[in-house]
Design brief:
By secondary structure, the chain is an alpha/beta fold. The chain has one domain: Purple Acid Phosphatase, chain A, domain 2. The chain contains six helices and 13 strands. The strands form three sheets. It has a six-stranded mixed sheet, with helices on one face. Strands 4-3-2-1-13 form a five-stranded mixed sheet. It has a two-stranded antiparallel ribbon with strand order 8-9. Strand 8 and strand 9 form a beta hairpin. The longest helix has 18 residues. It is globular, with a radius of gyration of 17 Å. The termini are close together. This is Ser/threonine protein phosphatase. It holds the Pfam family Metallophos.
C-alpha cells in the first residue's frame, strides 16, 4: 500500500471542454492519466487536489467520476476552483452510493486517516481571487477556517496537507494558510492549480519554514501520480 497525489485532471468526458486545446502538453491527456495510474494497486490511495471535472453538475460529471472510480486504488477528492459540480458532502456521498462509486472519498471540512497519518486539506486561496472592494478578507478567512477544521480533526497525529491553490508562489504568500501549516506542525504540503512552463517555473517547492512544498498539477507530473508515502 502506498499514498500518492495528483491534481487538475480536468476531465470532460461528459462535456465539451477538452484540455488539449491548451497545447501539446495536454495532448491525449485522458489516456496518459489512465497510463499514469496503471502502476498503482487496489490498496493504494491517491489524493486528487481539485479541478477534477469540467461538468456543471454531478449528473454532468458522471462519466468523469466513473473514470476516476475505475482507476486503480482508492481516491480522495478535493475541490478546485473549476469543480462547479461540487455539492454538499451529504449529496455527493449519496450520489456516489447510488452509482456504486465506492472507491471515492471526500476531503472537505474533515480529515482522512492513512494509517497513523492524517490527510488534511481544503481548496485554499490565491491572489487571482482578490477583488478590490469585495468580500476577499471574509472569504479568505472562511477558507482558512476550513483548513483549521481539517487540521484540528487530526488530533495529535502527524499531518499531511493537500491544497488546490498554492499557499506560496513567486511574489505571493497566503499568510493565513502558511500560519496554520506552521501552527499545526505540517511537514509536507502538496498543491496544484499551476499550469504551463511559466507558472511551473514560478512554483515554490522544497522546504520553507519547516514545511516541504510540492507542486502536483497533472501536467507538471506528466499525468503520473506522485508517490509521497509507502
Amino acid at each position: 500500500m502506498a499514498l500518492y497525489t495528483i491534481g487538475d485532471l480536468h476531465l470532460s468526458l461528459g462535456s465539451d471542454k477538452p484540455m488539449d486545446i491548451f497545447g501539446e502538453g495536454w495532448s491525449n491527456y485522458v489516456e496518459r492519466i489512465r497510463e499514469g495510474f496503471s502502476e498503482l494497486g487496489s490498496e493504494d490511495v491517491t489524493v486528487l487536489c481539485g479541478d477534477l471535472s469540467w461538468g456543471m453538475s454531478l449528473e454532468e460529471s458522471m462519466q468523469d467520476l466513473t473514470f476516476i472510480h475505475e482507476l486503480p486504488g482508492k481516491k480522495i477528492l478535493m475541490k478546485g476552483n473549476h469543480d462547479y459540480w461540487w455539492n454538499t458532502a451529504a449529496k455527493m456521498q449519496r450520489f456516489f452510493d447510488e452509482h456504486g462509486l465506492d472507491s471515492l472519498q471526500i476531503l472537505h471540512n474533515n480529515c482522512i486517516f492513512y494509517g497513523d497519518i492524517a490527510l488534511c486539506g481544503t481548496r485554499g486561496w490565491f491572489y487571482e481571487l482578490e477583488e478590490p472592494g469585495g468580500h476577499t478578507e471574509k472569504m479568505r478567512s472562511r477558507e482558512a477556517g476550513r483548513l483549521e477544521t481539517s487540521l484540528k480533526a487530526a488530533g495529535e497525529r502527524e499531518k499531511l496537507c493537500f491544497l488546490h491553490y498554492p499557499p506560496l508562489y513567486t511574489g505571493y504568500r497566503c499568510e493565513e494558510m502558511l500560519r496554520l501549516l506552521q501552527q499545526y506542525g505540517v511537514k509536507k504540503c502538496c498543491y496544484g492549480h499551476l499550469h504551463g512552463g511559466t507558472a511551473h517555473a514560478r512554483a515554490v517547492q522544497g522546504e520553507r519554514d519547516g514545511t516541504d512544498f510540492s507542486l502536483v498539477s497533472a501536467d507538471y507530473l506528466r499525468f503520473k501520480p506522485k508517490k509521497i508515502l509507502e
